[in-house]
Amino acid sequence: MYIIIRNIVRFLVVILFQVLVMDNVMINGYMIPYIYLLFILLMPFETPRWTQLILGFLLGMGIDLFLNTPGMHTAATVMVAFIRPYILNLFAPRDGYESDSFPRIHYYGFLWFLKYTLIIVVIHHLVLFYLEVFQLKDFLSTLLRVILSSILSTSTIILSQYFIFRK
Asked: For 95-150, how does the pLDDT look when each residue is reduced to its tens digit (9 = 90+)?
């Protein structure tokens, strides 16, 4: 029960923090930190796939409602919620993940968390930004935006592991 309440609070906090604080941080019009991905990244390993998809949908819909971006964030978060179990399997330790552990930097190390976060963030940003422009005419400038925003988002998410989610 404690985990459910904690995840509901985290869900609301990441949406509010993204909408009220992080969306006001735009560097050169290219880099936008999307920290709300923390909710999907930090879900427990045992979370059923259908729950991940529903929570990804609700998270994206919440962001879309505040930012007036009809379905773009929803599509991107559902995509990363769908792909998350495959990425976790890709980086699983030889003995599997420990029970009652979470995908955090303190449990599995910096390099593991960096690879896991970077892949999720890049996939999210590719879907989000290419849906936003919805044409291949600006392919390279959109790719630059994906790369720069991915670096900023990943850095912000990793820093949050040290300041907010300490051991």
From this structure: 777 777 788 888 888 999 999 999 999 999 999 999 988 887 888 988 999 999 99
Q: Helices 72-90 & 110-133, crossing angle to 10 degrees?
A: 150
CA distance 111 to 43: 19
Distance CA(105)–CA(157), nearest Å, equals 10
Q: Is residue 45 classed as helix, strand or coil in its secondary structure?
A: coil
Q: What is the pLDDT of residues 36-46, one digit of tens each?
A: 999 999 888 88
Contacts 24+ apart (CB under 8 A), 20-23: 22/156, 23/67
| Residue 102 bridge partners (DSSP) | none
pTM: 0.90
The DSSP output letter for 165 is: S
Tokens of 126: 């590719």
- Specify the pLDDT at position 167: 57
3 state SS for 87-141? HHHHCCCCCCCCCCCCCCHHHHCHHHHHHHHHHHHHHHHHHHHHHHHCCCCCHHH
Q: How many CA atoms lie less than 13 Å away from 137 in the CB half-sphere?
A: 4
Q: Other C-beta atoms within 10 Å of 72: how many?
A: 19
pLDDT of residue 165: 61
